[in-house]
Amino acid sequence: MPAENTGAPINGAPIDTAAPAAQDAAKNVPAPASSSATPTTSEKLTAAQLKAKAKAEKAARRAQVKEARIAVPAPSPVQEKGAAGDAKGGKGKGRQDGQQSLGKGGHLQVHRGSVAGRQPSSPVPEKDVRSGIPDCFSHVPMAKRIPTSQAHKDVHPAVLAVGQQMATFALNDSISRLRATLLAFAKVIESYETPKGNSLSRHFVPHVLNPQIEYLTESRPMCFAMGNAIRLLKGKVNKFDIDTAEDEAKEGLLEWIDFLINERITLAEYAIARNAAESINEGDTILTYGHHRLVEKTFIEAKRDGKSFDVTVIDDPFERSGQELAKTLRQAGIPVLYSPNLGGLRPKVAAASNVFLGGEAIFANGSLHASSGTADVAMSAMNAGVKVIVLCETINFDRDRVSVDSLTYNEVDPERNTGDCFRLLFDNTHDKYITGVITEFESGGGNSPAQAILALLRKQEDPLID
């Protein structure tokens, strides 16, 4: 008697009652009429059939690629994530957009294009900051800020900082730039190690010191005090014997830098202020231009000596540095008459007893290199019969070059350089408009004629190198 099928599992396995029906339906389906129909598993494919099959699959993939180029494909999850990252401020990693296509096997391929999900655009040309300068002034340099990433790999971090400060005029006057440069060079010397097979006297200057100098010069044209100090430093290095120990040479250079700062900057400022204060008499009216630290120290020193005098400050209409000087002098109890520009210069100069001017450099022919407007004050003073006294350290003297105009050695003001006009930072005052120069020398009360520049330098600089 046949057993009844109740659908219960046999040996724990379920019985699929739909399987026979599915098999009967599959038998009734007609085979495709195509010549390239896939043969049954019982048949073996010949070489010709395999080749025809591969050709058909390749044609199908090409058709899929063409359809994908026409249709706009939906963004992938990776692209959606990248777009969300850009929408949140672009903090995510940069992604690239581009054309999309289907590769082998129907996988989506991305051909990378522009960065950060933006369409490529033509680069915007950088504006030339010197475009407004006429060709006849094209030789005049200008300070520029150089990114630290573009600096030479051997430039010391301390020198990088000084270059940035000079380019932005955080370090402006010559002595401030000189002091910062020497202190930076001291750090370079401390971190220097002579490579094997070399000596400090032969390797340090060309391979270590020169890259520092080049970077500082590119940041802003070197002032004359820096040029003199670097020349003396190189002479000191070259005087070392080739067999001199590295530690001994480095210690000697560091001591020399300390000596230069103390003698030619710190003590020089004190000596000049004291010598110049002796030139101020009771009841004098002293006129000055802008703000120079030596002139300020001179007035403070004369006030400490108990002298009573008045000061007239003619300010640079662009820099406005004289405002700080006037404020300092008034706080010290010195009566000050402040003029914001050169207007009414003649009567103010005629009422003065002496004119005190600070200088950035003095050339071998006795001409003065100072901030723009100094020459106007000096010429007006000489025409009025008033003495013009210049205060300047000997480290700022240049015994190799002469200057007869304001275009040979100058700088373009980067803050006031437009397509319509530009401004020069310095001017040149001929020696005939200068009564005397006060330096740190004791002889003659420190007041020497401008033409005596070469004798002063020979007397003071030669012992520094020995």
From TrEMBL:
Keywords: Cytoplasm, Initiation factor, Protein biosynthesis. Residues 13-51 have a biased composition (Low complexity). One of its GO terms (cellular component) is cytosol. Residues 54-69 have a biased composition (Basic and acidic residues). It comes from the Eukaryota. It is found in: Cytoplasm, Cytosol. Residues 1-133 are annotated as: Disordered. The keyword Transferase does not apply. Its main location: cytoplasm. Pfam families: IF-2B. The keyword Protein biosynthesis applies. GO terms for molecular function: translation initiation factor activity. Belongs to the eIF-2B alpha/beta/delta subunits family. Component of the translation initiation factor 2B (eIF2B) complex which is a heterodecamer of two sets of five different subunits: alpha, beta, gamma, delta and epsilon. Subunits alpha, beta and delta comprise a regulatory subcomplex and subunits epsilon and gamma comprise a catalytic subcomplex. Within the complex, the hexameric regulatory complex resides at the center, with the two heterodimeric catalytic subcomplexes bound on opposite sides. This is Translation initiation factor eIF2B subunit delta.
